[in-house]
Amino acid sequence: MKKNIMLIILIVHIISAITLFYVGKCYEFVVSSTNSWLANLILGVVLFCLIIFIKPSIVDKLPNLLLILYPVAILLIGIIVFYKLPDYTYGEARKMIEQISGETTRYNKGDFPKGQEGMYYIYTDTSVYIVDAETGDYVKRLYE
Q1: What is the pTM of this model?
Q2: For 20-41, how does the pLDDT look when each residue is reduced to its tens digit (9 = 90+)?
Q3: 91 vs 125: CA distance, rounded Å
Q4: In the chain, what are the domain boundaries?
Q5: Which of 12, 13, 34 has its CA nearest to residue 22?
Q6: Cβ–Cβ contacts within 10 Å for residue 33, how many?
């Protein structure tokens, strides 16, 4: 019985790690809390494989507190991550710059959008806009 419960919890863990990847992709991974998706995915898969191949008698020795705290921890981490997401995604910031400036945005060299913690770099043909992901404020910087 405990083995089935642990497997269900681990499936939820793996699904939450994959969800974290797709959410981070929308924000171009400028939110540090979404950068841990790979570690979470690897941990979930490794634990899933361990629980599958371990003897049921060993799984039954797991403390009941683990069956309560593990899903609560996954839930709390999910709430914290979604609470810390900025107001603007990269796509919304690009649309905002296109509407304000009238210029067509493009990805930078190599077709990878750039950003850093909480900031997006939006490229046009003549300039770079640095957009704050939280407030939507931006600064225009011309190419040299």
Answers
A1: 0.77
A2: 899 888 887 777 777 788 888 8
A3: 18
A4: 2-83, 90-142
A5: 34
A6: 17
